[in-house]
UniProtKB/TrEMBL annotation:
InterPro entries noted in UniProt: TRPC4AP
Molecular-function annotations in GO: phosphatase binding; ubiquitin-like ligase-substrate adaptor activity
Listed name of the protein: Transient receptor potential cation channel subfamily C member 4 associated protein
Organism: Rhinopithecus roxellana (Golden snub-nosed monkey)
GO cellular component, one term: Cul4A-RING E3 ubiquitin ligase complex
GO terms for biological process, alphabetical: hair follicle maturation; protein ubiquitination; ubiquitin-dependent protein catabolic process via the C-end degron rule pathway
């Protein structure tokens, strides 16, 4: 580093003022203008020219100005720190200066986090703001690597990290500036090799990566494999908070609100650029020996019950102010564990707002750490670990991750934790994060449940390992269902490794069904529970899987929620309609149960009202019922004939006016520019209706009826032009996507070649073809060549 300027009073500084000082004072002999220095410093930071740091001032000037502005001596301390921060410095003196600066910033950070007072940076110039304005952050980013390269004490590194973190907390823009220093961010990872600096480093990295525009690449971290392999389980769990940012796509495009046009354009761009940073990071982690195994152990380990459950309500109140950052809780747990080894498992909690040099409470008194705190500690760990596993399950190496998760018995481990931890009963004293409540969606208890359900959904979706969610007795039940129905057993059931399935009286799927049926009507969990169960049924329809769930009252529960409770949540309704469709598809017993529950016209009208209120939400059920009707009509069976004659729902769907009404509305509510992963199902459902009409040689009739409906609505050509554009997009979207085409084929039991043929017939440009859309669009209203490509 550059040497410090000549001290005030020396020959170099006497008799003249520096240009910077003259400017700051408003000219020779002028009086200091309030705010002028700070304004120039801020402008200097933005432009890189002029005043940018404390070293550009003399100590005399800073001291004199400090008397008026009350800067707490921070600029002078930075001036001294700059002078002692070079290769041959006295680092003892340097550390003493850091010890003076650190408390000044930590007090403000604590007050800022706990909201005890509002900081108005532009008028009161709090310490962190002044520290940054006079170049303190830049000094830290230079000093910290120097202390590491020269192997100065870990204590000094901790002070630097603490100062940086507190400045990030209180001063806007600092975290973003640090995020732009990619080499510095990579360097921070190396500080996690030391247990003494791990927590501070992890906290700072997590905040920086949260605002970083470009994702960091883990393969650039020196000795990543060795670094991660040497973490203890506690450190690995904390590291998962960082990994959550590095392995998730910054803009995944998987969000239902992203248009498919935008996603397709992004995918084309990604193909030319190669793997994304998130994909590279996932591969880097999976290459670390034992990484997934250790995550599975973390996710399934039990909470220690060695500590008693003494009264802790008052203690919890005092904890609230510390829980904005889960790492603080980790540090306290570490302290408690260390003292436990000496039979002194105790800590004392400071009153809200009290500050400590390192941001942690003292450990001198004999107040026992409550058991609920250990539970919350474990919950905070697990939700991060489950998130990482969930992302890996959805990545490019999905099959590899699936195999490892099964091998390391994640599912039976989670099953054993289900009642005591994952879906434990809330108590009045349940711990929550500061500023939140038990029912808040971001409370740890609720977040863990949602993350658990998302993991089950990803694990079960279109994968034969889904049968690991059952126990041996339940697998035998599936076999018995197939035997009784005189149908072959599902091959995946036969191939399931019985040593890897759930143990105990109930498997994980059965436990989920039990809590699902007890969930309050307004619960936010209903959506995720339905999605998790539906994923078990997705793919090729399995009669045994359906009957397994039907026997446990799932259909009646769904109908109760849709009809009797008259659910209002669109998300929950959509998930319940999707689940009901998968549960009933091609299953005569399910339709009999439906008719038994919906046993009055009044109930049936409520059900239809829910369906018709939003076809985007209910169209998957409409599709499943339409497909089932087509299959039943082609079967010669007394049981099927009975259901066809009695079931209100099948009778309703069988009417051509009903099908045309659905078809018209399904096409009308979507357009190429507004297609998303959520509503593209409307397009596929409309195609199913027309494919089945084609099978019966009624396709021209349906197209003619659509044309008449257009004219009756006074919009000739509008619907069919839109449908033509949608089908052109369908060809572009699905003919290059193996997974999507396979899903369409498996879920409908209609070969994908028939899907393609039907679309080609509908798009035939020959106006003489009775099955071509153009034959039903009058020439003046023709608009089928619109360019919908999104760059």
């Amino acid at each position: 580093m550059a040497a410090a300027p000549a001290a005030a009073g020396s020959g170099a500084g006497r008799g003249r003022r520096s240009a910077a000082t003259v400017a700051a004072w408003g000219g020779w002999g002028g009086r200091p203008r309030p705010g002028n220095i700070l304004l120039q410093l801020r402008q200097g930071q933005l432009t890189g020219r002029g005043l940018v740091r404390a070293v550009q001032f003399t100590e005399t000037f800073l001291t004199e100005r400090d008397k008026q502005s009350k800067w707490s001596g921070i600029p002078q301390l930075l001036l001294k720190l700059h002078a002692t921060s070079h290769l041959h410095s006295d680092f003892a003196e340097c550390q003493n200066i850091l010890k003076e600066i650190s408390p000044l910033l930590s007090m403000e950070a604590m007050a800022f986090v706990t909201e005890e007072r509002k900081l108005t940076q532009e008028t009161t110039y709090p310490n962190t703001y002044i520290f940054d304005l006079f170049g303190g952050v830049d000094v830290m980013t230079l000093l910290l690597p120097l202390t590491v390269s020269l192997r100065v004490s870990d204590e000094m590194s901790k002070d630097c990290l603490s100062i940086l973190y507190n400045t990030c907390v209180c001063t806007e823009g600092v975290t973003k500036r640090l995020a732009e220093k990619n080499d510095f961010v990579i360097f921070l990872f190396t500080l996690m090799t030391s247990k003494k600096t791990f927590l501070q480093t992890a906290t700072l990295i997590e905040d920086i990566l949260g605002v970083k525009k470009e994702m960091i690449r883990l393969d650039e971290v020196p000795n990543l494999s060795s670094l991660v392999s040497n973490f203890d389980q506690q450190q690995l769990a904390n590291f998962c908070r960082i990994l959550a940012v590095t392995i998730s796509e910054m803009d995944t495009g998987n969000d239902d609100k992203h248009t498919l046009l935008a996603k397709n354009a992004q995918q084309k761009k990604s193909l030319s650029l190669g793997p994304s940073a998130a994909e590279i990071n996932q591969a880097a982690l999976l290459s670390i020996p034992g990484f997934v195994e250790r995550l599975c152990k973390l996710a399934t380990r039990k909470v220690s019950e060695s500590t008693g459950t003494a009264s802790f309500l008052q203690e919890l109140e005092e904890w609230y102010t510390w829980l904005d950052n889960a790492l603080v809780l980790d540090a306290l747990m570490r302290v408690a564990n260390e003292e436990s080894e000496h039979n002194q498992a105790s800590i004392v909690f400071p009153p809200p707002g009290a500050s400590e040099e390192n941001g942690l409470p003292h450990t001198s008194a004999r107040t026992q750490l409550p058991q609920s705190m250990k539970i919350m500690h474990e919950i905070m760990y697990k939700l991060e670990v489950l998130y990482v596993l969930c992302v890996l399950l959805m990545g490019r190496q999905r099959n590899q991750v699936h195999r490892m998760i099964a091998e390391f018995k994640l599912i039976p481990g989670l099953n054993n934790l289900f009642d005591k931890l994952i879906w434990r009963k809330h108590s009045a004293s349940a711990l929550v994060l500061h500023g939140h409540n038990q029912n808040c969606d971001c409370s740890p208890d609720i977040t863990l449940k949602i993350q658990f359900l998302r993991l089950l959904q990803s694990f079960s979706d279109h994968h034969e390992n889904k049968y690991l969610l059952l126990n041996n007795q339940e697998l035998n039940e599936l076999s018995a269902i197939s035997l009784k129905a005189n149908i072959p057993e599902v091959e995946a059931v036969l191939n399931t490794d019985r040593s890897l399935v759930c143990d105990g009286k109930r498997g994980l799927l059965t436990r989920l069904l039990q809590v699902m049926k007890k969930e309050p009507a307004e619960s936010s969990f209903r959506f995720w529970q339905a999605r998790a169960v539906e994923s078990f049924l997705r793919g090729t329809t399995s009669y045994a899987d359906q009957m397994f769930l039907l026997k446990r009252g799932l259909l009646e529960h769904i109908l109760y929620c849709i009809v009797d409770s008259e659910c209002k949540s669109r998300d929950v309704l959509q998930s319940y309609f999707d689940l009901l469709g998968e549960l009933m598809k091609f299953n005569v017993d399910a339709f009999k149960r439906f008719n038994k529950y919906i046993n009055t016209d009044a109930k049936f009208q409520v059900f239809l009202k829910q369906i018709n209120s939003s076809l985007v939400d209910s169209n998957m059920l409409v599709r499943c019922v339409t497909l089932s009707l087509d299959r039943f009509e082609n079967q010669v069976d007394m049981k099927v004939a009975e259901v066809l004659s009695e079931c209100r729902l099948l009778a309703y769907i069988s009417q051509v006016p009903t099908q045309m009404s659905f078809l018209f509305r399904l096409i009308n509510i979507i357009h190429v520019q507004t297609l998303t992963q959520e509503n593209v199902s409307c397009l596929n459902t409309s195609l199913v209706i027309l494919m089945l009409a084609r099978r019966k040689e009624r396709l021209p009739l349906y197209l003619r009826l659509l044309q008449r409906m257009e004219h009756s609505k006074k919009y000739p050509g509008f619907l069919l032009n839109n449908f033509h554009n949608l089908l052109r997009f369908w060809q572009q979207h699905y003919l290059h996507k193996d997974k999507d085409s396979t899903c369409l084929e498996n879920s409908s039991c209609i070969s994908f070649s028939y899907w393609k043929e039907t679309v080609s017939i509908l798009l035939n440009p020959d106006r003489q073809s009775p099955s071509a859309l153009v034959s039903y669009i009058e020439e003046p209203y023709m608009d089928i060549d619109r360019d919908f490509t999104e760059e």
